[in-house]
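pls design
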């Protein structure tokens, strides 16, 4: 089967937007081509609804969630391959994951993620009055960690600056997912989108979902 060209992908994205159909991207690492396609799709959806002013904070939020999902997959691989000796040692986990956050290592872990069948799926679901964005990775989050993340999301909603939040809520373990979640809340708040439009849930079996609802009216 011939590989789809960039022009083919652009045509498919525009066709889906015109029909108000959901657009799905599957990623195993952070690749430039995938990023460009997501940027294009999001920009065109917002443009269609005269909401182009939302593009920068919404895309930045989406990028954070994708990075978090990919890091969660990398963490799983590090544990499986014995690079992380004690998964309950939060600082060890943070340090080991941080060490692979460069382009070369992320590409390697993208290949490994595919071998482990650990994908990150990005859904853009345009409707008449709202855009639903979902970032799904096929790993569950433990209840305790989920509660911690939800609490952090709510706490972040009281701040207008991520720097102020971090100064008043120092947490050396937050450089991974925690800080990213706080940043999403602050970015959305900057354009009047309440933190309650940003939700996290898991089925505790096979997936974790981060969802943002963007009003389009």
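designed seq:
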């Amino acid at each position: 089967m011939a590989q789809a060209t960039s022009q083919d992908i652009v045509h498919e994205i525009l066709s889906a937007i015109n029909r108000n159909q959901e657009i799905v991207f599957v990623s195993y690492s952070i690749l430039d081509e995938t990023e460009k396609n997501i940027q294009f799709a999001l920009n065109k959806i917002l443009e269609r609804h005269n909401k182009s002013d939302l593009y920068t904070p919404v895309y930045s939020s989406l990028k954070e969630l994708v990075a978090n999902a990919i890091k969660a997959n990398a963490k799983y691989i590090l544990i499986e391959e014995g690079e992380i000796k004690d998964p309950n040692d939060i600082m060890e986990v943070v340090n080991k994951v941080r060490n692979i956050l460069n382009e070369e290592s992320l590409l390697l872990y993208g290949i490994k993620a595919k071998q482990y069948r650990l994908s990150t799926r990005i859904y853009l679901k345009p409707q008449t009055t709202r855009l639903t964005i979902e970032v799904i990775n096929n790993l569950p989050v433990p209840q305790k960690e989920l509660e911690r993340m939800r609490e952090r999301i709510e706490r972040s909603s009281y701040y207008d600056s991520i720097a102020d939040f971090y100064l008043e809520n120092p947490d050396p373990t937050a450089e991974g997912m925690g800080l990213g979640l706080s940043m999403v809340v602050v970015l959305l708040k900057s354009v009047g989108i309440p933190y309650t439009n940003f939700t996290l849930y898991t089925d505790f079996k096979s997936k974790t979902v981060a969802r943002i609802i963007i009003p389009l009216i």
